[in-house]
Every structure is written in C-alpha cells, then in structure tokens.
Amino acid sequence: MLEGIFDFLDRRFLRTPENRLWMAQRLPPGLITRLQAGKFAATVRYAAQHSRFYREKFREHGIDPAQVRTHADLGDFFTTPEDLRERPVEDFLCAKPEFGFETTGTSMGINKRVYFSYQEMFDYGRDGAVGLYNLGLRPEDVVADGFDYSFWNAPFTAYYSIMAIGAFHVIGAFVEPQEFYDRIKVYKPNVIMGVPTHLVRVTEVAERCGTWPVKLVFLGGENLSERTRQYMEGVWRGAKVHLSYGQTEAFGMNGVECPEKGGYHLGALALTSEILHPDEEGYGELAYTTLNRTVMPLIRYRSADITRWASDGECHCGLRIMPRIGKIIGRSDELINCSMGNISPYWFEEMLRGVPEVTDDWQVFVRRGDRDDRIEFHLELVNGASPEEVKNLIFRNIESRFPDCWRYYQKRFFEFDFQFHAPRTISEGRKLKRLIDARRDAWNQ
Ligand SMILES: [Zn+2]
Hints:
Elements: H1 2-13, H2 17-24, H3 31-50, H4 52-60, H5 81-86, E1 99-102, E2 113-116, H6 118-134, E3 142-145, H7 154-165, E4 168-171, H8 177-185, E5 191-194, H9 196-209, E6 216-219, H10 226-235, E7 240-245, E8 255-257, E9 264-266, E10 271-276, E11 284-290, E12 301-307, E13 324-325, E14 330-331, E15 336-338, E16 341-343, H11 345-352, E17 363-368, E18 373-380, H12 387-401, H13 403-410, E19 415-421, E20 435-437, H14 439-444
Parallel strand pairs: 3-4, 3-5, 5-6, 6-7, 17-20, 18-19
Antiparallel strand pairs: 1-2, 7-8, 8-9, 9-13, 10-11, 11-12, 12-14, 15-16, 17-18
This protein binds zinc ion.
The site of zinc ion has 7 residues, from loops.
C-alpha cells in the first residue's frame, strides 16, 4: 500500500533526476526499509503465482509465499546463476518479455539469459540517472559511450539513464580505440562512458594525440583498479573517473559509485540486498531481490560478487540515505585458498598500485612450488623498465599493504615468481581472468 502510493507520487511529481535526488535527501530514515519490505513481500507472492520456477522451489523448500516478509523467511533458499543456466528462461517469466540480454564473461559455455520489458528498462534508467546526476551529469552535457552492443545490456543502461537526464548522447560502441577517439573528438564530449579495458586504450590514444576538457569518465561492466583510475584521471586532466556496479541480471544497475569514491550506493528502491556468510572483516557474497520487475523478478539471487557493507562511516553525498557497499574484491569463484592466504584479484591490484612500469594486463597463477605454493606474476613491462626495479616496488607494496602476507613470505610459507612480457601480449584483447589456480592441473599430471 505504502509502496504503491510512493511509486505513484514518484512518477507523477518527481519527474527529473534533480527532483528525485532532492527528495532522496529528505526521506525520513526508516522509510526505505519499509518500502523495501512491502515490495519484497509482494514480489515473492507475485513470483510464486506466475513463475514455474519459484512455485516449484517454494513448494520444495516448504515456503508459504504469503508468510514471507524478509530474506530470512526464505531459510536456505536462493536463486543461483546455475538455475538461470540450467532451467529454461520461460520457467522464470511472469509476464510477456520485450527484451533479452545475456551475461558476459562466463567460461561455462552456456550464457544466462535475462528478460525485461521496455517499462522496466525505462525505470532502471530513471534510477541510474539519479546516480549519474549525483556524480555531476547534467542536461547540458555531451556524452559519448563505447559500450559493446552484442547481447549485452550496458549500452541500454547508458541510453535510458542519459535519456532520463536529457543530455546529448553519441554512441561510438566498441570500435578500435583510435577510431573511437578520432570520431568522438568531433563532438567534444565532456563525459565519456565505457568499459575499463576499452577506455584505457582510448586514454592511451588521448595521451599521445591530445585531450579536451572532460569532467567525468564513467565506467561499467568490469572492475576498475585504483591505479587505472589514477592513470585515466592523470591523462584526462580535471576529470573524475567513476564506476557503476551492476550485473546484467539487474540491468547493470545494482549501484552507482559515491562521489567520495567510498563504494557504491545501492538502488534500494529497486533491490533489496544482503551479504551472505560474512567473514571476520565483513566480506561475503552479495545476494539481492529485485523489487520492481514484472517480467522476470529474481528472488535472493546470488551474485557471486564478494563485498561488504561500507565501513568508513557516513558519506556526505546526495544519496547518503541509500545503503552503500564497499569495493567488489572478487568473485566467489575467483577466491583461492593457498599458502599466501585466502586471496582474490583485489590483492594483486593493490600490490600493483603505484607501479607505473607495468601495464594493466596482468595475470597471476597459483602453482605447486618446490615446497609450498608458488605465486607466479605475469606482467607486461613498459618500455625500458627494469624487472628488478618492478619486483622491488611490488615487494615494497606487499610489505606496507599486506604485512601478514609479507611475514609469511619472509618465513618462506610460499614463493613468488615473476615472468615479464612485452606490452599487449598477455590479453590479446580478451577479458582477462586475473587469478588462476593451476595447482589442480599439476595433480592431474
Ligand atoms: Zn555517498
């Protein structure tokens, strides 16, 4: 009831992102939690009524949809990425779909499909626009985006969000960095959007050929290391580089980074989120339920992304009322337990931060060493850099940023190995799997 009234007022009176952000700063505390609870209970009942998958699963788990009020009422029931891969997409559908996307970056051979209606994409765009407005995007800005269209939602997330703001938009899509640079330059965009791997290469072109005033570089689709952020902000002088966090399953709109860069504000009126099995530092897997979807609602969906609730106190931005998560430190299927610790790609990003002598295309293999595990870095040296110097910089970072890890290394619990390569030879344009556990292969040999 309350959520119905709120949605009506929101659509009728808060039409612009500016108004919605103004309102977000004045919502009474507790209202968001109440709205979420109402929408969550309604979503569970709706899915149980219309989706074969949820009807079956609730019956199997002895869940009475009418009684469900919170995630905890669902016991050990989750929707998993495997469910999306293994079950026909029709089993999840509750209404007629109008648009289909697939998830990227899976190595399993079967892509997950996620369906939406135009209305749902429009609604996500309105929410995304509030996050972008909070980062400084305005109707008078000119945006160029480089998102790849192939089966992927990101360009549409950009499209609907930019439309909701009313800024000028030109789409370069995923063309060669030099061509992208040459052709967007004509429009003098002061905002550029895209995936980190592509826009890093565009930034390299800009470093050689010249920049123009850019105030915001907005990235999505992949994680961003702090060193890449610093590099891009250094080249596009005066620009802020920010990141969105989103899965295709949530139309790329789980959250938008806080302007203070202390994590992501979640779209709490469109999702309710929880962190599963947090460790002693609070890190666990993010799971969420979509709250506004009629075509393919997802209930307690396991994201496989590892994060924690932001722990650095309250921020001061316009979205401070929205719950905030910290950095995504890895995927649950990327965490590797070895003699170095329970490691994730984030560890190595931190070890390489402040080492400009290597490129962003790096990979780390965990192998069986002579006695214990061997951590094998594969790095691309920038012209003329000395391997010894790079090793020393990395060791210095480990010592200061991961003191426990450094102590274990000194005690020879594990060993490091460094392999250096020429620039642009490791990734060959593919999205890199950063951290690879190669120990199992050794056992099989
Ligand atoms: Zn904030």
